[in-house]
Amino acid sequence: MEETKKSIEEFQHHIQKLRQEIGKVIVGNKDIVDQILICLFSGGHALLEGVPGLGKTLLVNTLSKALNLKFSRIQFTPDLMPADIVGTNIVVEDEHGRKVFQFQKGPVFGNIVLTDEINRATPKTQSALLESMAEQTVTVAGKIERLPQPFFVLATQNPIDMEGTYVLPEAQLDRFFFKIFVGSPKIEELHEILMRTTGTQKVEIHPVLDGPTILEMRDLCRSVPIASHVSKYAVRIIVATHPQSEHPSESAKKYIRFGASPRGAQALILGAKVYALMEGRFNVSFSDIRKMALSALRHRLILNFEGEAEGITTDEIILRILKEVKEAPEEVEKLIPATA
Fold this sequence. Notes:
Blueprint: H1 2-23, H2 30-42, E1 46-49, H3 56-66, E2 67-68, E3 71-75, H4 83-86, E4 87-93, E5 99-105, E6 112-116, H5 123-126, H6 130-135, E7 137-140, E8 143-146, E9 152-157, H7 170-174, E10 178-181, H8 187-197, E11 209-210, H9 211-222, H10 228-240, H11 250-255, E12 256-258, H12 262-278, H13 286-297, E13 302-303, H14 305-310, H15 314-324, H16 330-333
Helix pairs in contact: 2-12, 10-12, 12-13, 13-15
């Protein structure tokens, strides 16, 4: 118990140091920063969406400076090719003067990979990240190359109704642990941003975490216990998003064509475990699951024609589902003590 308490305190200490370093540059956006950190320590990837100029790229750059890891940036454009991301075989001369093929690694071979404006590249190029994000490998000419660990993709994109953008394929979206909306700053935050960015003050970001420490923190997060009735609550939320399931929600039957995949359930539970540790607890609660729901599921629901026509958002549907799905069905409630 004492060792567990010490591990939780160390975890919180590392999180606080990261927040402080990021806060030197980024004004406000505490929830957004925390969601990115949850992705990092869950071993997932994050997709940041917002209009240009809100500091999405700056946030990722700041995080990379606070971590002692190899950082790569890929600027997605319509003419970007898959080989520009994963790498390609080139012809070189060996020590005997013979021509041989040698694999030249692309920018995806980094610990933190920023894919800036990912939806400005064609679907073919976007799909070049599928294997990397899911399996942490790259296959070129039949040879498998493993990516360095930890491996963390942070993608930014503009809203899909902006000119020159392509919709991300569903398979690509599902590989993102969280989809995070970046909104406009509040009045007081905008004033602070102007004070920091229009003067002569320079800020230096110091690295506070390295790769082995991050991997240890990931292992600690996965070791957080979760009660069966809490994990089943996450399962019922996922099942409720499927209109053809045994227990669909009314909103799903009316507005959803396809519900969330098993990766959605994984994101709910892993994210909840990290969040519990960030709050100083070594157990997962129902509220932790609900806290993860919007970011974990909003990009995993596909609306039907009626949903598109009525202009309803996946966030609205998720909030309705959370109201409909009970924390514990009647047969489980009878087994849980009243003081639980």
